[in-house]
Known about the structure:
CATH superfamily of the largest domain in chain A: FAD/NAD(P)-binding domain
Structural class of chain A: alpha/beta
CATH architecture of the largest domain in chain B: Alpha-Beta Barrel
Low-confidence stretches of chain B: none
CATH topology of the largest domain in chain B: TIM Barrel
CATH topology of the largest domain in chain A: FAD/NAD(P)-binding domain
Oligomer: heterodimer
Helix content of chain A: 25-40%
Number of domains of chain B: 2
Number of helices of chain B: 12
CATH architecture of the largest domain in chain A: 3-Layer(bba) Sandwich
CATH superfamily of the largest domain in chain B: Aldolase class I
Number of helices of chain A: 17
Number of strands of chain A: 15
Mean pLDDT of chain A: 92
Largest sheet of chain A: 5 strands, parallel
CATH class of the largest domain in chain A: Alpha Beta
Low-confidence stretches of chain A: 13-21
Strand order of the largest sheet of chain A: 3-2-1-4-15
Helix content of chain B: 25-40%
Strand content of chain B: 15-25%
Number of domains of chain A: 3
Amino acid sequence: MDRGEQRLSKVTAKNQLQGKEIKKDYLDEAVHGYNTRTAMEEAARCVLCYDAPCSKGCPADTKPADFIRSIRFRNFKGAVATIREANALGGCCAKVCPYDRLCEEACSRTGIDRPIQIGKLQAFAVDMERKFNMKILEAKKADKEKVACIGSGPASLSCASKLAREGYQVTIFEALDKPGGVLTYGIIPSRLPQDVVDFDIEKVKELGVEFVFNKKVGQDITLTELKEQGFKAFFIGTGLWKSREIDIPGINLKGVRNAIGFLKEARSGKGETKVEGNVIVIGGGDVAMDCAATAKLLGAERVTIVYRRTIEEAPADIAEIEYVQSLGISIITKFAPQEILGDDGKVAGLIARGTDDFSELKLKADTIVFAIGQEAEDMKKIAPIELNENGTIACDIAKGFTNIEGIFAAGDIVNGGKTVVEAVAQGKSVAESIMNYLSKKEGVN
Amino acid sequence: MAHKADLSIDYLGVKCENPFFLSSSPVGSCYDMVKKAYEAGWGGVFFKTVGIFIADECSPRFDNNAKEATPWIGFKNMEQISDKPLEDNLQAMYRLKRDYPDKIMVASIMGSNDEEWTELAKLVTQTGADLIECNFSCPQMTSHAMGSDVGQSPDLVRQYSKAVSSATDLPVIAKMTPNLGNMEEPAIAAIEGGAAGISAINTIKSITNIDLEFKTAMPVVNGKSSISGYSGAAAKPIGLRFIAQMKQHPLLKNVQMSGIGGIETWRDALEYILVGSHNVQVTTAVMQYGYRIVFDMISGLSYYMEEEGFDKVEDMVGLALPNIIPAEELQRNFKIIVDIDHDLCIGCGRCYISCFDAAHQAINWDFENRRPTVNDECVGCHLCLNVCPVLNCITPGKILWKEDWKITPDEINFKTRYE
């Protein structure tokens, strides 16, 4: 064991002491789940509040207070039912929700010591669903109008699930060859294992939702054609798939990558993709953390994150930042990239300048991944809908009406890039709008 | 070494280094086990009951029940008396007394007729044992001529106590079953028959859990199960009650008691002492944690005695008895309203739920600030104090007097310290 490995094993040991087991394999989940006994232990810590703040803290109304109470009173199946009823992506949300800013932040137990591990309890409940092969959601007879959902990420899946349950004939059109959007392509498997994503999607399929892959609406098929096929309403939940770029010298060198492409390639490679040498990730969000962890776990020698603000300002979850640090990745804050150095057309290094306008940084690099945010692709290709200045769709977030009758939108493409759980919540509430529209032809912006 | 005050006590004329004994059970059933227990600090052992009858045990034979995430709230045991040859047991007792003369060996015996009881009494007396305990109370014997069926009959208890006391010069202890309504009757019968002391309680007849797969009790023995003895923490309140009630009976108040039932800590042991026990016995906690728990019993009780200024364990025996009085004698002309500390309060609302659903709707809930306040309906029942998850958040506050109030407030003693 060399010094680095020794150090890493110390970090691992420390994390284990704190109850955070860190695994160092790309496909391995970083956190160990509960079994019935440990779940009961955690549920017993819950003070079972009246008018519980945690439930109020969930954007998707997943009712943590209710499902924890069910676990506490040994009704594991009832717990799963509560979750599924409210949240079509209960499994994924259990893994990627920023609890510390939502339900767990609201947890009353914090007043005594530390919050209940709500996400892990939710994951446990969903594990039970799988174990008992439960079928909780039932779809009414699919005799209502045809609805097309464009994109197969969290917002679309949530919207489709709700509509299918109410008897609408829903088809999801996905540009890529697999469903899930950001869930399948944009998050590291140590945070969100693919089988969890697949299971949630399987549950949506069980409701009768059809999936069409490799069909990008606006490119491979037009909205008019879909109308001709009998679709009466359209939901746009395409997400943000264009990486934000900056214009600095060297940006076109070989070895400069964007976050989405980098993560997508790694996930498609199922752990076989190799990353070598020195990798620099630019950015301070969860996507940047995922890129850095991906690089490290796939073999990069040294991974460094360069971020232009402070750690406190970084939008990434504290848990993600700690995870990345536990892998031995350093985070350099308050530096912005100035120039990418090249050698024979390939990336050789990065020069970054301190935001204090004084400090300088020169780092060797073989790969530089830009994870500085995502933008909307051109939505006008789908329909002449009104857009915001940044390219997102201009519409009411809760209702999802666009300026065109029969076209609705939700998720990142509307809110500019927020959490999975918010996309789920919006997809669900926009499904209500769509049902209202189809039954009464009401509510056009 | 454990911190150690003088914990010695005279129990039925035998000087014991401390009152902590293993009860007659699987935890003291051979030489090596008892040797280890002695060396861990136990003052003595009630050796696993011996008889002419040799037990044939089932597998599995234990179960425990849990609340939330806490296992072993109570424990079910289907073992009977010793399954070893009588000769081996007598040998073990003899060698233990020879090798550890300062430790106390109590021979526990069980017969099925006068002759067996007499013979067993003679045999164990020869081993050098200090005391003899008659097991009138094992609830899972496969023969109805033995165990708790005997303990429920004062006549049989008297008869066999007499048979044993006549056959030995050692003090005799009668071990009682709790599977009856009135323990005083068999206890008095035992004393009339010549017993010098009483042990209580043996295990409580129980079904801990019903297995949903096999639709029978736990543990499942080839698809079936039986009712058998329950012990552990859940049994403590029942054991304390029986000891206290016997000690308050005019005919038993001078009889020395050995307290048994749910003892895990020095506090549990002390509680048994305070209701009148000269000796305490432990099994279930040892089954769960091992002999080493006696370290904290010795150390914990020593600290307590020093803190409270007690020189001898004897001085604490029965101190709670004058304060445990019939319900009709309790003073009922005041109520203690609770105080809720809004700074400590975490806003969980548990007090509000319990007060509304199970008490007197005496707590108002402020939805906006998530804080409870006590209204005029409060009767001072303190259910809220019992459910509050925060230490010292809800505490006894002002005393309100009912109309016929005559004494002054200073005369009321009430608890202000909670842990």
